[in-house]
Amino acid sequence: MSAKNKLEALKNAFDKKTTTTSNSNWKNFFSFWKAPDDSTTVVRFLPDVDPDNSLGFLVENLIHEFPVNGEKKKVPCLEMYGHQCPVCALSRKYYAEKNEDLGKKYYRKKSYIGQVLVIESPIEHDQSQLVKLIEFGPAVFKQIQAAFQSGDLEEAPFELKGGYNFRIKKTKSGQYASYNTSSFAPKATDVEDDVIEQLNLFNLADFRGKAMDLAVVQALLTAAESGHALEQEPMVEEDATPALAPAPRPAVRATPAPSTPAQPRPAAVEPAAVEPAAGSQSKANSVLEKLRARARAAAESTEE
User: Fold this and answer.
1) Is there a contact between 188 and 154 (Cβ–Cβ < 8 Å)?
2) The whole model's pTM is what?
3) Assuming Cys at both sites, which of 3, 46, 231, 254 could form a disulfide with 81, CB separation 3.0 to 4.6 Å?
4) What single string gives the DSSP state of each residue in the chain?
5) What does the pLDDT read at residue 199?
6) 10 Å Cβ neighbour count for 289?
7) What is d(CA 45, CA 57) in angstroms, rounded to the nearest whole number?
8) Phi-psi region of 162 (alpha: psi -120 to 50; beta: other; left: phi over 0)
9) Which pLDDT value is given to residue 152?
10) What is the pLDDT of residue 192?
11) In this structure, what is the dihedral angle of CA atoms 130, 114, 156, 140, given to the nearest 10 degrees?
12) Which residues contact 103 (CB under 8 A, 6 or more apart)?
């Protein structure tokens, strides 16, 4: 194959990889934002498979967005994986220079990923899929954070026995949706035993944006800053999980994310700090360990 044909084949392969924005795993996410205004969706948060997750039932996802070659690129923040991030450094530089427009342009966007049982919903959803992933922004997170600070929760809300349902209330604030009145239910409830037997939990960290090689991030950032098109963008490949940005090739092994997310971050939500009732603690722990073991076994089977 000639050099020209080889380059053309590479471009075609790249186009097929990068123009694909859908992923079969996105069906795992519950589209609560599609609910009509002035409606309430009730969900029950479930624990992360990872017992070392300090947030217990949520993971933080940090994504930069900026234009490259006329398209918006989503680049996972490397600080999320314990590395220095050149995009964060550039954003801070602009803010320090009082250039808020450019500082905001490169500042990372924060969201949170969890998994839930959908208890009540004003929108249709696939009820054959019991456990659904959910992603939301700081507005909903602040209501969860406030519940821990209020002292009203007597158990960690994701406990299967004695936990709390969460009510996502969608209202209108001007032309935008608002979730500022969302809250946990005032009364604790149990997840039914037959439902617990059917739970297959996710490892939430698998659904954050996948770490990119530093050189790839720097190349994209340089192109965004200069406004010059990249003659050949980094080769990417689709991942089995719904990465919010494509994984680079060659792939790099990301260091495990630290248990405490990178700065700046909101005040930590620590479910472990909530003292559960002694009567249900051992039973809940036993159930959680069984579910986590089942999820780990399923993941190992998939890898094989």
Assistant:
1) yes
2) 0.70
3) 254
4) --HHHHHHHHHHHHHHHHS----GGGGGB--GGGSPTTEEEEEEE---S-TT-TTSS-EEEEEEEEEETTEEEEEE-GGGGTS--HHHHHHHHHHHTT-HHHHHHHSPEEEEEEEEEEEE-SS---TT--EEEEEE-HHHHHHHHHHHHHT--SS-TT-TEEE--EEEEEEEETTEEE-TT-EE-SS-EE--HHHHTT-----GGGGSPPPPPHHHHHHHHHHHHH-PPPSSPPPEE--SS--SSPEESS--PPPPPPSSPPSS-PPP--GGGS---HHHHHHHHHHHHHHHHHHHHHHHHHH-
5) 92
6) 11
7) 7
8) left
9) 87
10) 95
11) -120
12) 91, 92, 94, 95
Ramachandran class of 190: left when φ > 0, alpha when ψ lies in -120 to 50, beta otherwise: beta
Which positions of the chain have pLDDT values less than 70?
Answer: 1-26, 231-304
Please answer whether residues 268 and 55 qualify as being in contact, where contact means their C-beta atoms are separated by less than 8 angstroms. yes
Q: What's the whole-number average pLDDT of the chain?
A: 77
The answer to whether the beta carbons of residues 191 and 280 sit under 8 Å apart is no
User: Residue 236 corresponds to which amino acid?
Assistant: V
In this structure, CATH architecture of domain 27-255+276-303: Alpha-Beta Complex (3.90)
Looking at residue 203, its pLDDT comes to 95
Question: In residues, how long is the chain?
Answer: 304
List, in order, residues 6 or more apart from 157 with CB less than 8 Å away: 45, 57, 147, 163, 164, 166, 184, 271
Structure tokens belonging to residue 47: 């624990």
Amino acid present at 213: D
Q: pLDDT value at position 291? A: 61
